[in-house]
Q: What sequence folds into this?
């Protein structure tokens, strides 16, 4: 007996229009410019543990994710773009830029937030995200 093909909308989501449930994350770590500092190796190691512990997460190391202006004004430390995704690595919510991660405590806060899926990140880790959001509204 053939299994019926699942209908999808033009955007690739379920035909019902429901937002896919996040079951993992795509984690994009910047490794260039001010992001490439003493915390980068610790950040990549900690996030690798998150990815290994989950079924549907991916870790990517890339160039700048915030843009050159944000890099000039934010100071040193890795930035991580966090995109919640479903079991097929399709976006399941808006991406969030986290950082700069300047201490082990900052990295631990991000790891806890990713693993628990609840709670709130410290405001200083979302400062660049808030600045970029405000810039797009102005």
A:
């Amino acid at each position: 007996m053939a299994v019926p093909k699942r209908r999808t909308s033009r955007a690739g989501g379920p035909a019902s229009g429901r937002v896919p449930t996040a079951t993992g994350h795509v984690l994009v770590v910047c490794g260039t410019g001010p992001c490439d500092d003493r915390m980068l190796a610790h950040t990549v190691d900690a996030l690798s543990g998150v990815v290994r512990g989950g079924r549907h997460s991916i870790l990517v190391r890339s160039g700048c994710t915030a843009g050159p202006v944000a890099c000039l004004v934010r100071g040193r430390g890795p930035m991580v773009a966090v995109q919640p995704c479903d079991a097929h690595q399709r976006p399941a919510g808006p991406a969030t830029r986290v950082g700069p991660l300047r201490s082990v405590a900052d990295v631990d806060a991000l790891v806890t937030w990713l693993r628990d899926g609840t709670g709130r990140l410290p405001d200083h880790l979302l400062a660049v995200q808030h600045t970029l959001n405000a810039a797009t509204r102005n």
Notes: Residues 10 and 118 are 31 Å apart (CA to CA). The radius of gyration is 17 Å. The longest helix spans residues 40-53. The chain has one domain: 24-137.
